[in-house]
Amino acid sequence: MAVTIIDVAREANVSPSTVSRVIADSPRISEQTKRRVREVMNQLGYYPNFQARNLAAKTTQTIGVIMSDSTSLAFQNPFFPEVIRGICVSAHASKYGIYFSTGGTEEEIFQEVVSMVQGKKVDGIILLYSRVGDRTMKYLKDENFPFTMVGRPYQYEDEISYIDNDNERITHEVVEYLYNLGHRKIAFIGGNLDFVVSIDRLNGYQKALEKLGLSYSEDYFIRNDVIKTNGMKAVHQLMELNEPPTAIVAHDDLVAYEVIRYLEGLSVQVPGDVSIIGFNNHALSAYVKPPLTSVDISIVELGLEATNLLLEKIQDSEAAVEHYFVPTKIIERESCKRITTKKKRE
Amino acid sequence: MAVTIIDVAREANVSPSTVSRVIADSPRISEQTKRRVREVMNQLGYYPNFQARNLAAKTTQTIGVIMSDSTSLAFQNPFFPEVIRGICVSAHASKYGIYFSTGGTEEEIFQEVVSMVQGKKVDGIILLYSRVGDRTMKYLKDENFPFTMVGRPYQYEDEISYIDNDNERITHEVVEYLYNLGHRKIAFIGGNLDFVVSIDRLNGYQKALEKLGLSYSEDYFIRNDVIKTNGMKAVHQLMELNEPPTAIVAHDDLVAYEVIRYLEGLSVQVPGDVSIIGFNNHALSAYVKPPLTSVDISIVELGLEATNLLLEKIQDSEAAVEHYFVPTKIIERESCKRITTKKKRE
DNA sequence: CTGAAAGCGCTTACAG
DNA sequence: CTGAAAGCGCTTACAG
């Protein structure tokens, strides 16, 4: 029904091959012929059939975007929309489309990736997460299929191209920031340790303590799952310690606010009694009370650069493995307070 | 290179047609043959080529998802990730994939939609917005291409299937809610009036005033663009009116918080002096101070139902045009206060 | 229940 | 600079 390359060829008195070459803007066709063929294409309302072209050319001009299962962090604001925006910008500039994974569970996602790869649905894949022991990542690596990750791979770091923040360093800086405000008792509320980002941030926290001569205590570390299931109690226990923290680093702005609310229940003031700093710099964090000091992690760039790297890989299968860190920045607002170190010690 | 249907056929001693029918699980093939062919497929690691299958079958098994340009509301949390989640659930259940638009400007988006339709990239399209005078919507309708919208179309309402909230009604209810708390001076901060959702909410506000015997005043209506560019001043003017409002309805939780911040600058307490209610029930709104009363609009359902409707349309081109409203609910928190109507009037 | 053949709408060596 | 031909990997009437 639709007008095909054959119709155009007939109408323009050339062969289908020629029409095909005009579409591709091949230099081997004379300007005159091109002009004539293009005129006919417009006249007939011709559009190349995507599937047919891809089948013949053995390409798809689309990249697959995979996020971790929907129950996890990835679906929270604002990471997801922003990273997608970055991907869109880069993909659009190179005339690539985006095919989106729809799977729910880890297993479904894995199966979907396999079918994307084997079924030749996409030219390359972006993994929007990095999880410990991830089968999908391993598969992609073993298949030698073009892919990049947003997040440092937990393994094979030298064989996989990825974009990330320097999570260890920035968390280190966050702790130092609090230290410089006079804090010595600094608690940490981590993310899901199945994800490398959470591990790196925890490492940064621990190393900073060490470097600053503060000792690490299990009591000062709350895992994200206990915040989720039993946050109120965990925060109460934290504040009932003999030496309750004067500052808290939270893995995400959302959990920071959750904690602030529990603190309120205990009549603990932020930042009066306890300073708190979050990660990810949510849109709301500027407006909320107290405006939250938070680490901006350049989410759009994360998506943008991951896509650029993938596109390089697709276009040149010999392209070197590359890693980038995208900038992070502590956005100071009003949830952290300078204290004079007059308490117990010293 | 990859193993094809031919390889499987040869190995299983059947024709390619038979293999194809086994893939489709056609009832016309004996169980015995199916078993044998499937065994060979596993053994050889066969996966059907997506493009080839689609080209031959004249289908794509994928739906296109289009959002409004990235500068607008759609990219704000939490609408975007949640609506996508809804779409994914439904698409995945029906084994459809998702092709995502990457365009930046309105024109780019339009071109992309045309190429999706004409290039046979997708079987149907979901428009994640409804804009006044939208060329893309008109095009889809005129082409008679299967599509649905999240949001009431500004035109051709009887010819287009869509899912929406009953925005007029819920805004009406919101005003009544405030009225029942004793408020008589209720201001409204609207969204971008290029979008139908904003128009409907404004209408609901105005009709509620009318029904409740309150008069509508231009002074009580702030357009979203002035909030964006000159919000502080607009809020100041609002509060310096002879009869400043005692309650404010904000088109979105984000703008509600922005307003609250400006109010603070004027030492106006929320909800002490002014009550405020938002829309969209952001994830943070529960945690923030004051916890914001907000209208939950069931975003996931919006995506889910729009996809279901589209799938019906795709599978049956004669399917009737349908509309659904997805439930809305006022989530009461702490930003609205009952007042005793003792001020000036009466 | 199964197969031979045509066809989906392109691209790309190969030849001139 | 252009064309004829083969092929990409499937599906689907048609025939038996």
TrEMBL record, chains A, B:
* An MF annotation (GO) of this entry: DNA binding
Top-level taxon: Bacteria
Tell me which UniProt keywords the record has, alphabetically.
DNA-binding, Transcription, Transcription regulation
Q: Mind telling me which InterPro entries this protein's record contains? A: HTH_LacI, LacI/GalR-like_sensor, Lambda_DNA-bd_dom_sf, Peripla_BP_I
Q: State whether keyword DNA-binding applies.
A: yes
Which PROSITE patterns has this protein been placed in?
HTH_LACI_1, HTH_LACI_2
PANTHER family documented for this protein = HTH-TYPE TRANSCRIPTIONAL REGULATOR GALS, LACI-RELATED TRANSCRIPTIONAL REPRESSOR
Q: What is this protein called?
A: DNA-binding LacI/PurR family transcriptional regulator
Native organism: Anoxybacillus andreesenii
